[in-house]
Amino acid sequence: xxxxxxxxxxxxxxxxxxxxxxxxxxxxxxxxxxxxxxxxxxxxxxxxxxxxxxxxxxxxxxxxxxxxxxxxxxxxxxxxxxxxxxxxxxxxxxxxxxxxxxxxxxxxxxxxxxxxx
Length: 117
Prior knowledge:
Number of strands: 6
Oligomer: single chain
Order of helices and strands: EEHEEEE
CATH topology: Thiol Ester Dehydrase, Chain A
Number of domains: 1
Largest sheet: 6 strands, antiparallel
Helix content: under 10%
Strand order of the largest sheet: 1-2-4-5-6-3
Shape: globular
CATH architecture: Roll
Distance between the termini: 19 Å
């Protein structure tokens, strides 16, 4: 994944699967993640939808219903990100964070990103 982020704030590591409106991304955290770290990982994971392979700069412009569902006990998580709406340079995404085995839901929510031109 092409991201402008560097360690220790680069959480999205690799794309497991990506379809037109759904991506699954493996994320690694430097410590047990907090809710804000899950959200940042989800925003980074939305880069899986980049069609031309170029890194584009995106700015989060809104958050909705971000919730911590269970405490994380590991530093690896799998995030599923779904592109809900795309209007030009503005996209709304929803996400669900799971533990590495994808058995336990950890966090969820939605956010809107504006891509710079």
